[in-house]
Design a protein that fits this description.
With 319 residues, the protein is mainly alpha-helical. The protein has one domain. 73% of the residues lie in helices and 0% in strands. The chain has ten helices and no strands.
Length: 319
């Protein structure tokens, strides 16, 4: 058989089952009452479809792989950032970075964690190598997200040349990396140093502080919403209808923003548990990254289910 992926849009979206005796029972069908509700209510149909895609696509497993690459990219970024600050003699930048990390990710940098001076030395002596590792791990994160959304959307593998695909992922990294960094820096920086900023401006009062935090939370949520919508609309190999992208982006942004805010508390809680020892920070970081990746794929499932629910239904065959 000949043809292109456009001729057969579901080709290669899933592997064929090998011959052999089945060892697992089949998945139970959706209950009749729930199917009836779905026919009457759009969002019931979307919810059932999203949950089905989330489980069928093995989203938690895909999120674990994405979190692993994100974990590697995070430490590569830290080494590179400290190295650049050291080469430029930008001690204030390095100190601000250390203070921010100590507040947002307690135990990662400083006493009991990674020595900032060690990061500066490593980054200074291996800045080129660190940049290469950052590019490899960063494009791996983008590639994992792309492949996972392809699977969720039921899209086959891309037929592009591998070098073109790599260049495309570098472009995505150059676009998404600064946006994610700005979103994270604003939320953690203002949360950590909001009181210092208010003192500098001569503004006092707990109400003002809460207003500042609320404003920053809304701003970072909107930024996360835009990043999520961009990824769901353009990274999955097919462009979903616009009404389908928004609810998926809202789900993703809520999960990502929530765990961004809770990261410091979760890591602080684990660091205080002596049974976790030196594994507390890396394991908890992986946990946070895993949930954020699952938020992206949950949003992708909602987008896919919303697009399918709004698609025209085939006419019943004539008797």
């Amino acid at each position: 058989m000949t043809g292109t992926p456009e001729d057969d849009p579901v080709a290669d979206a899933a592997l064929a089952r090998i011959p052999g005796r089945a060892l697992e029972p089949p998945v139970k069908p959706t209950p009749g009452k729930l199917r009836a509700l779905g026919r009457e209510h759009l969002w019931v149909r979307v919810g059932v479809g999203a949950l089905d895609r989330f489980t069928s696509a093995r989203s938690p497993v895909m999120a674990a792989g994405t979190a692993y690459y994100g974990f590697l990219a995070m430490f590569s970024l830290l080494a590179f950032a400290y190295g650049v600050a050291s080469l430029l003699n930008a001690d204030e930048i390095a100190r601000w970075l250390t203070d921010t990390l100590e507040e947002s990710l307690p135990g990662l940098i400083g006493e009991g964690g990674i020595d900032p001076d060690t990061l500066s030395r490593v980054g200074r002596t291996t800045s080129v190598l660190g940049l290469l590792v950052l590019l490899v791990s960063g494009t791996a994160v983008v590639g994992a997200a792309r492949d996972s959304l392809h699977r969720i959307y039921g899209v086959p593998r891309s037929g592009r040349n591998p070098l073109v695909q790599r260049a495309q992922m570098l472009g995505w990294l150059a676009l998404l990396g600064p946006l994610v960094l700005v979103s994270y820096s604003v939320s953690t920086g203002v949360t950590a140093f909001g009181q210092d900023l208010l003192d500098t401006l001569g503004i006092d009062g707990s109400a003002t502080r809460w207003l500042l935090l609320a404003t920053v939370a809304v701003a970072t949520f909107l930024l996360d919403l835009g990043i999520s919508a961009l990824m769901l609309a353009r990274l999955g190999g097919v462009e979903p209808p616009r009404p389908a992208v928004l609810p998926g982006a809202v789900v993703t942004a809520l999960v990502v923003t929530t765990f961004k805010v809770l990261a410091a508390g979760i890591i602080g809680w684990s660091v205080d548990r002596p049974q976790y020892g030196s594994f507390a920070v890396p394991v908890t970081l992986l946990f946070v990254l895993w949930f954020q990746a699952m938020g992206l794929y949950a949003g992708g499932c909602v987008t896919a289910a919303r697009a399918m629910a709004a698609a025209p239904r085939p006419e019943p065959a004539a008797a």
